[in-house]
Amino acid sequence: MTQIPVEHPRYESLMTREKIVEGVQTGITSKQGLIAQGRGETFDYLLGERTTATAAYAERAAVALLLLAQDPIISVNGNVAALVPDSIVALSDVTGAPLEINLFHRSEARMHKIIVHLKAHGASNVLGKKGDARLDLDHDRAIVDEEGIYSSDVVLVPLEDGDRCGTLVSMGKNVITIDLNPLSRTSLSSNVSIIDNITRAIPNMVQFAKEMKHNKTEELQSIVDSYNNDKVLSSAMYEMSETLKNMSIERGIEWI
Ligand code: PTJ
Is the pLDDT of residue 206 over 90? Predict the structure, then answer.
């Protein structure tokens, strides 16, 4: 890893890049994952690289859904495994939602490496290797485990690429996504769209899950019932335009 001084103004962002690069070097993350991270960084810059109040509201609703679910599941890809291995395992533990590897650029070698990596970070059981069921898709994201994603009622799919999200919704599942782009097909088609960097969203969700774990079913249900996903999407776009406006004014550029 390149040594990044802690006082560097872009320390967090540069360290995140280092983790993704390391993921590619160890064979966990696809090369395409580097490009996906770059796209995410752009939206995060516009968001002000912080968890907004409406992103936190979506994260709480997502946790309520996971805690209420009969068969929750957390889908993991190469970027997720490289960026947040400890906190995704912690979220699985505190919500009781198993982890399942599901890859767009699937290979048996990557599946194996990600499973070993997550187990090294404390995961006890990681699904995805069986691949004994299929979603109605014409690429490798279709391959899922019967006892995992296929039969789940609530599924968390961070850093997704659109069409699987739509398919899961059309199967009647409650789909939670984490995607910094509020206009992506993923964000537009999911039931709960978390517009936040996964490096902040998953640790926040772990904290919320610890706080909400002993809430009554009715309390969790009321969080879900009052949740409004359109509000979350429009608020993210508003926050981005406000950040741009403020940055522009700070730099002496007239906002016209
Ligand atoms: O490991 P694989 O083979 O399953 O491949 C994973 C990637 C991420 C390469 C694959 O799913 C892909 O190509 O995804 P897309 O279509 O690039 O979509 C990724 C979305 O996640 C984009 O909308 C990005 O803005 C967003 N994104 C990228 N990095 C982050 C992010 N959102 C939140 N936090 C991030 N760190």
Answer: yes
**Does 253 map to a domain?**
no
Instruction: Give me the phi and psi of 194, to 5 degrees please.
Output: -95, 110
Minimal CA–CA distance to 161: which of 80, 230, 91? Answer: 80
Count of C-beta atoms within a 10 Å radius of residue 12: 16
Domain with residue 222: its CATH number is 3.40.50.12640
Sign of CA dihedral 104, 108, 109, 115: positive
Closest C-alpha to 198, from 16, 11, 14: 16
Residue ranges lining ligand 1, Cβ < 6 Å: 30, 32-33, 36-37, 39-40, 43, 77-79, 103-105, 159, 161, 178-181, 184, 197-198
Please tell me the residue having the least CA distance from ligand 1 atom 31. Answer: 40
- From the CB of residue 125, how many other CB atoms can be counted at a distance below 10 Å? 10
How many domains does the chain fold into? Answer: 1
Provide the pairing of β-strand 133-134 with 143-144.
antiparallel
Q: What is the spatial distance between Cα 156 and Cα 160, in angstroms, rounded to a whole number?
A: 10
How confident is the model over 123-136, as pLDDT tens digits?
Answer: 999 999 999 999 99
Picking from 99, 179, 166, the residue whose alpha carbon sits closest to that of residue 135 is: 166
Give the strands of the sheet with 192-194, arranged side by side. 126-127, 99-101, 72-76, 154-158, 174-178, 192-194
**Domain enclosing residue 177, as ranges:** 53-238
pTM value is: 0.96
